[in-house]
């Protein structure tokens, strides 16, 4: 892949568009300044005295051991992190035997913003359907790992309190409640299945665990999908709020870095588009870092820029369709489609047609692609800021970063953008690689359950992999 494939020739992009998009471009000087602020925010999040005022909460996960290959049996996983959730059945056996079945279920929009009991009743109903479909034994408690991909304050491996809803959810009666208890209560109300919740985690921890099953030096889990967050392996003595097993040297910390900048540290680089998105979101003033990066917002940033430039007569001769004027109509998948064009603008023309804009000029197509590239590059570079901070903080010679999420999976250049920029920002003696996690959040949840189950069996406690 050469640079011409990533950026169209400046001659095909209007100079006025390049000028207008400069607000979306970040210099390394700006990125290093952000790194300094994020490093302070993470250290504050880890501190007992500074945590309450820190916007980056650095929640303790209580996950301290990686899979070591001795895990055996069947384990359920529940993966809730967006408009769809999955139930998985994973079987682990000899010689790295691994088999997985799963079903995807939808969370209707009315449930996403309804009562919390309705959400967990819906989840329990789907769990029961899954157990019945796969003829699982309902008389014995089935071990389950629960991936809950929202800001969670954990006080144990099986106890976690929701700090705030994100990603369009706003169910009542859940914030500040133990979500494991809410799930257990919903299962009890059904009286038709028995589930033993062995661990609760978020999708970043699941991604780390999933990749660690294959690659033992995995020390960071990253999600760039509907939301954006990361977790990493921290020394127990640095995690001042950790009150678990101090005989083990490390614990996974869930950064919840999506809230970075909620205290104003991002104000210098936030654009009018970012402010518009924030003001019109379900949680104004919160998750500002995530809103500049993730798949829930990237397409909307592009749409706002397109509308703004068209209103200035710098795009489409100032003419806009009703679809393009509609909030949320320009999906982030469109950004990936447009940037996947090889020079004939076939995808761009198709996307614009779907948005009600017919027969745009090739210059307009080049301009739209350029806008997409500026938005997605900024997103990737902000991710690189966070990764470089974590890599520098851990200061390990070699680290694998497990990654999952639709933006990372489907955007044609996101991996390359992150690798190149992180290399520029991280200490020169640190080697790192990005590893795509396969079903990370679900598989990882089952592995957390499997490790917890393994550690309860005396015959399986030898050879625990240490961080």
Give Rg in angstroms: 23 Å
Approximately how much beta-strand content do the residues carry? Answer: 15-25%
Inertia-based shape: globular
| Average predicted confidence as pLDDT | 91
Q: Strands of the largest sheet, in order across it?
A: 1-11-10-9-12-13
Give the % helix. Answer: 25-40%
How many helices?
17
Instruction: Provide the succession of SSEs.
Output: HHHEEEEHHEEEHEHEEEHHHHHHHEHHEH
* Secondary-structure class: alpha/beta
Biggest sheet statistics: 6 strands, mixed
Uncertain segments are 1-10, 458-467
**β-strand number:** 13
Distance N to C terminus: 36 Å
Can you walk me through this structure?
The structure is a single chain. By secondary structure, the chain is α/β, with parallel strands linked by helices. Helices cover 40% and strands 18% of the residues. The chain contains 17 helices and 13 strands. The strands form three sheets. It has a six-stranded mixed beta sheet, with helices on both faces. Strands 4-3-2-5-8 form a five-stranded mixed beta sheet. The protein has a two-stranded antiparallel sheet with strand order 6-7. β3 and β4 form a beta hairpin. It starts with a helix and ends in a 12-residue tail after the last helix.
